[in-house]
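Quick one: structure tokens for this chain, please?
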Amino acid sequence: MQSISEKSSNTKNYISNYLDEVYNDVVRRDPHQEEFHQAVALFLQSILPLLEKEPHYIEKGILKQMVEPERVITFRVTWVDDQGVSQVNRGYRVQFNSAIGPFKGGIRFHPSVNISIVKFLGFEQTFKNSLTGQPIGGGKGGSDFDPKGKSDIEIMRFCQSYMTELARYIGPDVDIPAGDIGVGAREIGYMFGQYKRIRGAYEAGVLTGKGQEYGGSLGRKEATGYGTIYFLHEMLKDNSISLSGSSVAVSGSGNVSIYAMEKAAQLGAKIVACSDSTGFIYNPTGIDVDAVKQIKEVEKGRINEYLKYYPETVFKDDQSEIWNVPCDIALPCATQNELNEKHAVQLVNNGVKAIAEGANMPCSPEAIDVFLNNDVLFGPAKATNAGGVAVSQLEMAQNSMRLKWEFEEVDERLQEIMKNIYENCREATNKFYNATNLIQGANIAGFKKVADAMIAQGAV
């Protein structure tokens, strides 16, 4: 007769072997999609304790459904540049999971975009959207088009061509794209106009991140950055650490980083460093967030131009060196895998207390291990940067009701959503891990809602 410990060990081995089988199937089918492999591996590792207590998720075979997107769309995007020459890019849309609502996720225009990137983002988006508590599924899209250096007319032509192909696959109750890297209000406007032309109808809810004049929500631009700080605030408060007075380093200088800096500064933090693709600026006495906003949002300039306002500030042309800066809190808000093991060790040596991921999967697995092994508080991306999609859903709700809420109402709803996300992550972590690792808690809390909906709807 087996002892209890032997049965427990056998069960754990069975589950581990099953998870290995799921992962190996993913790699076998798509051997070159490294970013997607990484996202799946991290997710599967996180939910093992849940499966030990609730093995019916294995019995139903739900994991093999969950790691396979419902639909992968690729298409040619042809557009004409200012010299009259035809150019060709690749367009993508991955509709990953619609178990709890229509597909929802951004569109990214960047040379690095490929099917692996889009699948990893869509996979992460599924659980992120689940964590918001709102009825939205997961999807993601984009193109390897680079908007940098392009004229407004070239960008308009590209966006119109991209939407001409995408329009047949989206709709207010089907798939609702939004912005991401390289896609802001300008690009959303061009795509919405083309969609409206194709459909011959004004379907305001088909895209989010729209301009205020045609159905956009107040607070959407600020939402991801603000939401990251609202989550961080709850995490710090729960561990008796004050955001006020803390020094903060923030990578990136797009919407996420700018508004994370703005809200952190409003709550009393001192921003000491921020970056863009050309390098980073550092000032231990604090950085003027309004000046950064002026440079990046109004002047469309580079981060080193900050020195014209504050010449005593240090500028270095290697953006990755930002993680050598002493700080209490680090906010990686640029792109995936930007913060590696070496950076993590440096941050720990410099006394960092907390990390909150503003970008999608910005910390490598090795970096995360360093933080967790050194008791650094860690806010995972699928929880911390869910504020953007949360307010996108609020935009969808306003469009459906033909209403417009004031900024204060949207911001109040966002704060409540982020507080609930933190509490759900913490509760799941404590229940299944009896620890403070919120990565597992976020994955489990996001997974359960989606998985239960998928089981209820059958093998579809």
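The radius of gyration is 22 Å.
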